[in-house]
UniProtKB/TrEMBL annotation, chain A:
The chain crosses the membrane at residues 43-67, 99-127, 134-157, 187-213, 234-254, 290-315. Pfam families: BPD_transp_1. Residues 1-28 are annotated as: Disordered. It is found in: Cell membrane. Residues 100-312 form the ABC transmembrane type-1 domain. Keywords: Cell membrane, Membrane, Sugar transport, Transmembrane, Transmembrane helix, Transport. Gene3D superfamilies: MetI-like. Belongs to the binding-protein-dependent transport system permease family. This is Multiple sugar transport system permease protein. PROSITE patterns: ABC_TM1. It comes from the Bacteria. It comes from Chelatococcus asaccharovorans.
UniProtKB/TrEMBL annotation, chain B:
PROSITE patterns: TAT. The keyword Metal-binding does not apply. The keyword Signal applies. The lineage of its organism: Bacteria, Pseudomonadati, Pseudomonadota, Alphaproteobacteria, Hyphomicrobiales. GO terms for cellular component: periplasmic space. It is found in: Periplasm. Keywords: Periplasm, Signal, Sugar transport, Transport. This is Multiple sugar transport system substrate-binding protein. Residues 1-32 form the signal peptide. It comes from Chelatococcus asaccharovorans. Belongs to the bacterial solute-binding protein 1 family. Pfam families: SBP_bac_1.
UniProtKB/TrEMBL annotation, chain C:
InterPro entries: BP-dep_ABC_trans_perm, MetI-like, MetI-like_sf. Keywords: Cell membrane, Membrane, Sugar transport, Transmembrane, Transmembrane helix, Transport. It holds the Pfam family BPD_transp_1. The chain crosses the membrane at residues 12-32, 75-96, 103-127, 139-162, 183-208, 241-261. It comes from Chelatococcus asaccharovorans. The lineage of its organism: Bacteria, Pseudomonadati, Pseudomonadota, Alphaproteobacteria, Hyphomicrobiales. PANTHER family: INNER MEMBRANE ABC TRANSPORTER PERMEASE PROTEIN YCJP, MALTOSE TRANSPORT SYSTEM PERMEASE-RELATED. It is found in: Cell membrane. Residues 71-262 form the ABC transmembrane type-1 domain. This is Multiple sugar transport system permease protein.
Length: 325, 432, 277
């Protein structure tokens, strides 16, 4: 993320570069050009691996997907050009709209809940805890679990008939999660599962940022007679702001492409009521073999992700202005 | 341990493991035989070719051809997807694939080699013995594209011990009886296990289709009539909904899958289920089942009003072996197809739990002895037909059908409205 | 005042307990169930006292040999992807840290924008390409895919870490006539080791656990462990939960320990990514 936000060294250099070449000094300009070419050649072997990987594995296939999205095709059928018809078809499909709404709900509810939890935990940890190291490892543990295993264990724990958690809740006369029956419960269990898997990530970002806040700031606030709440609002929140934004952006983008958790947990059921956009895409591509609409869905996902990121950059720009980084 | 120490250790370890990994990669064993036939199938197609009673049924063929078999197996849906993708490439490594009978549309059929010429040149032993209906399912536009290899005919399985516990002497013979018994059988067993009357997967069209057929209706007929008798479908769904409301279908109905049905029956958590007869052996397997020898099967019952008037048309699904157009050694592939379709191998696979495609297999004494449900299966098969015919948008039509069925069964949409919506939403998908 | 502190401490204790239960209970349950006798796994109410057994592990070895092949495949793929991602990220991160220019800033933005494309969007067109290159069902295809999805983050992280290395060090070496490669290897690399470990943690965890790509691009020879576990769930013979839990335990323990040992670098990596943002 830091590339958008140029770091101090490069900023300084760029300023120096800009002031150097004066019109009229042709030999110096030529020398500069020669330097730049030599530099570029020198950079090449260092930058090549990263860019070759990205170009060949993500960018070129993505353009091919763009071409696919303008055609209809399936197994044994030659592609037929249809213009934007696939996009219209997807955007007017009620199933797609429901999938988009479900994705939106999960992104908004789960990610923010996760952020709040992570913030609380980061502050709790920063406040000093006995056995903090062990606790830290414990909190990080779900990060190491594969989605496949996580879904297997959650399906088992929350099994509506014999799951230990369900039975414990029943024994305590608490409401149980009927995730295979009530659609909203289906979304809840998916949200819980995705929070469980990704909370460590968000937590670590916030925890690391909190550790980076110098203790003197809090001492100064104390000297000024600030209460805990006041120092949280005046010191912690503003200084954690950038880290929270980054955590949010990451999680928005990753929650938006949520797939394995839903696919392995509910397959989008009951009655397609927990389907998310990535599952819709998977169904179109790998179940209905409608490559055109699948590709159109893929590009719609890409565009929405780009919009999310653009919004983030805007916020960051405005913030950067205010904070004079 | 300091930071730097840890780092150097890790770097060395990383190097070590890489070298080891590279070594293992390079040292993969080469195949022993001269040729290899790659096969794309479901796991079950591979396992029925080898069993304790029959030994390895492919051994003769492998020795005769100096060839090895390499199986790549997937679950049904991913398997079909992978098969079509492989067959769409310029060239594939796979010589043989397994296809479900409701998949070969005209477009899909183009991906596979027409087998009529091979059959003329090197015919399959006693070809007319193979059930004509199954051969028909593998014939598209007058061309034979697949050789039938397995059928799965749906039967009604019940746990005799649970029926006895509730004082029920005989399994249901009409749909009304089944509903009644399923409700009675929703109880807590003496063992303490909560039991539901009936367990069904919600992600297969098979079950609602059978309930509709019990009332003389259907989903899509083989000549593409959609909902020939909407009232029958309404009756079928009403019954399913009543079962769900009574708790006689599990609460988790909407996420229950085919494999769950097996587990529930083996663990005594359900009294009835609908599964292919071929599952009999597995349901009664001593190592897995809590009720070995107690799980039995009968024909799925028709409604009382139609009993004795029309036979019940249970659902049958069949598999065929195909050779992709872009395969390498097609002669080798055909010789494998011939061998698997032979009388000997068909019987052997049947003994290992495969639904046999040859009429003569059912007459075989060894098979009847090994398989207690052989007779009833043969009888059911006579009137059975596919859940729906193949057409390009069949998968989407099935998804819509199941979505509406689930909405109706869970009570989120009136049955009448759901059936009406099935009609309006599926109609545009049918071939004109 | 004292009561307040007592309450605060009590609240803190409850919070810690809740966090521990939330994070560890599901994992502990898997570990526990893997040594539970089969008939107790589904017992209601759940049994916490039982006679531990290694039966499921023996069954796993006897019936699911393919699982151990899967583990080996996972290991090869994980090590390969990590090495590739680290090498590519360090090299690029070094250039981004030490030089600037219009081309470089544009290519840095490119790194980020590309990362926004959802992986599932490219599975469709990649299949024929991978097949055409004869890479289907090989370790290499997974290594390339996994590394690709982490070189963006890796490059930016490495840049931040290399930024912290004083420029005087490499300028001095440059005057002595050392090449970029020599400077990177002998001066920069040893100092930014924690950064490398941070990047490694991300790639290792991802590559070890990934499901979707492995599902689409492998068949038998390169099938990874998570794929075998998912097969156990959808097994035709019904799910044998005991074996499943044993396999899950074997699959998750190494990476759990790895994350445990490496948590410091994970924190360092994310703080480099976040605070420098």
């Amino acid at each position: 993320m830091s590339a958008i936000h140029a770091n101090p060294i490069t900023e300084r250099e760029r300023a120096a570069n800009r002031s150097q070449p004066q019109p009229g000094e042709t030999p110096a300009r030529l020398a500069g050009l020669r330097d730049r070419v030599r530099n570029a050649l020198g950079f090449f072997p260092f930058l090549a691996p990263v860019h070759v990987l990205l170009l060949s594995i993500i960018v070129i296939p993505a353009f091919y997907v763009g071409w696919l999205s303008l055609n209809t095709s399936s197994f044994g059928q030659a592609p037929v050009y249809v213009g934007l018809a696939n996009y219209v078809k997807v955007l007017t499909d009620p199933a797609f709209r429901e999938a988009l709404i479900n994705t939106g709900i999960i992104v908004v509810v789960a990610v923010h809940l996760e952020l709040a939890l992570a913030l609380g935990m980061a502050l709790l940890f920063a406040g000093g805890l006995p056995g903090r190291r062990f606790l830290l490892v414990a909190v990080l543990a779900p990060y190491a679990i594969s989605e496949v295993t996580a879904v297997a264990m959650w399906r088992f724990l929350f099994d509506p008939d014999i799951g230990p958690v369900t039975m414990a809740l029943r024994a305590l006369h608490l409401p149980v999660l009927e995730w295979s029956y009530v659609p909203s419960h289906g979304l809840i269990i998916i949200a819980l599962l995705t929070i469980w898997l990704h909370l460590p990530f968000t937590f670590v970002i916030l925890f690391a940022a909190r550790l980076a806040i110098p203790g003197e700031l809090y001492e100064a606030a104390k000297v000024d007679g600030a209460t805990t709440l006041q120092s949280f609002r005046r010191v912690t929140l503003p200084l954690l702001g950038p880290a929270m934004l980054i955590a949010l952006l990451f999680r928005y983008i990753f929650a938006f492409r949520l797939f394995s958790e839903v696919w392995l947990m509910t397959q989008g059921g009951p009655a397609r009521s927990t389907e998310v956009v990535a599952v819709y895409l998977y169904q179109e591509a790998f179940r209905f073999n409608a490559f055109g609409t699948a590709a159109a869905t893929a590009w719609i996902m890409v565009l929405i992700s780009l919009l999310l990121a653009a919004g983030y950059v805007l916020i960051l720009r405005r913030q950067g202005g205010a904070h004079a980084h | 341990m300091t930071k730097t120490q840890k780092f150097t250790m890790t770097r060395r370890q990383m190097l070590g493991t890489t070298l080891a990994g590279a070594g293992m990669l390079a040292g993969r064993p080469a195949f022993a035989a001269a040729k290899t036939l790659n096969i794309l199938s479901h796991k079950v197609h591979q396992t029925v070719l080898n069993g304790p009673a029959t030994g390895d049924l492919t051994e003769n063929w492998r020795k005769a051809n100096d060839a090895d078999l390499a199986w790549v197996t997937f679950d049904s849906n991913p398997l079909q997807d992978r098969l079509f993708r492989e067959a769409s490439l310029p060239k594939t490594d796979f010589g043989v694939g397994y296809i479900i009978d409701n998949r070969p549309t005209a477009d899909i059929a183009k991906l596979f080699t027409p087998l009529d010429a091979y059959q003329a040149k090197a015919p399959i032993e006693d070809y007319s013995d193979i059930a004509p209906g199954l051969v028909q399912a593998m014939t598209v536009g007058g061309k034979l594209i697949g050789i039938p290899v397995r059928h799965a005919t749906q039967g009604l399985f019940y746990n005799e011990a649970l029926l006895e516990e509730k004082g029920i002497k005989a399994p249901a013979t009409t749909l009304e009886e089944l509903v009644d018994q399923a409700k009675q059988l929703t109880f807590t067993a003496k063992s303490g296990t909560p039991v539901v009357g009936l367990v069904l997967a919600s992600d297969l069209a098979v079950f609602p289709v059978m309930f509709a057929r019990a009332y003389g209706g259907d989903f899509i007929t083989s000549d593409f009539k959609l909902l020939p008798d909407p009232e029958a479908m309404e009756k079928g769904l009403t019954v399913l909904k009543a079962l769900f409301d009574a708790g006689a279908l599990p609460r988790s109905y909407a996420t229950t899958r085919n494999d769950d049905q097996v587990t529930w029956l083996q663990q005594g958590r359900a009294a009835y289920t609908v599964l292919p007869f071929a599952r009999n052996a597995q349901l009664n397997n001593k190592d897995q089942s809590g009720f070995p020898g107690k799980i039995k099967a009968v024909e799925f019952p028709i409604s009382a009003g139609l009993k004795g008037k029309t036979p019940m048309a249970s659902v049958v699904e069949s598999w065929g072996m195909v050779i992709p157009n872009n395969a390498g050694d097609k002669d080798l592939a055909w010789s494998f197809l011939r061998e698997v379709a032979s009388k000997r191998v068909t019987l052997g696979m049947a003994i290992n739990g495969n639904g046999p495609v040859r009429v003569s297999t059912y007459a075989d004494k060894a098979f009847a002895a090994a398989n207690p449900v052989a007779a009833v299966e043969a009888a059911v098969l006579k009137n059975a037909r596919g859940a729906f015919p193949p057409f390009p948008e069949a998968a989407r039509a099935q998804t819509i059908f199941l979505e509406e069925v689930q909405l109706a069964v869970l009570g989120r949409k009136p049955v009448k409205a759901a059936v009406a919506d099935i009609a309006t939403r599926v109609r545009p998908l049918l071939p004109s | 005042m004292r009561i307040e502190r007592l309450l605060a401490n009590g609240g803190r204790l409850v919070a810690v307990a809740l966090i521990l239960i939330w994070s560890l209970f599901p994992i502990a349950f898997v570990l526990m169930s893997s040594v539970k006798p089969a008939k107790d796994i589904f017992a209601a109410p759940p049994k916490f006292v039982f006679e531990p057994t290694i039966r499921h592990y023996l069954d796993l070895i006897a019936k699911w040999g393919v699982f151990f092949d899967g583990l080996l495949n996972s290991l090869i793929v994980t090590v390969g992807a990590t090495l590739l991602a680290v090498v590519a990220s360090v090299a690029a991160g070094y250039i981004y840290s030490r030089h600037s220019g219009r081309f470089l800033s544009a290519s840095a933005v490119f790194l980020i924008v590309v990362r926004l494309i959802p992986p599932i969007a490219i599975t469709l067109p990649l299949f024929p390409v991978v097949n055409w290159l004869r890479l289907n069902d090989t370790h290499l295809v997974l290594i390339l895919l996994y590394a690709t999805f982490f070189v963006s983050l890796g490059t930016l992280l490495m840049r931040t870490f290399i930024d912290q290395v004083p420029r005087e060090l490499d300028e001095a070496a440059l005057i002595d006539g050392a090449s970029r490669f020599t400077i990177l290897r002998s001066i920069i690399l040893p100092i930014v080791a924690p950064g490398i470990l941070a990047v490694s943690v991300f790639v290792v965890v991802f590559a070890w656990n990934e499901f979707l790509f492995a599902f689409v691009f492998t068949a038998t020879r390169a099938k990874t462990a998570p794929l075998v576990i998912s097969e156990m769930i959808g097994s035709i013979d019904g799910v044998d939960w005991g074996i499943l839990f044993a396999a899950a335990t074997v699959q998750l323990l190494p990476v759990l320990l790895f994350v445990g040992f490496m948590h410091r670098y994970l924190v360092a990596g994310l703080s480099a990514g976040a605070t420098k943002g």
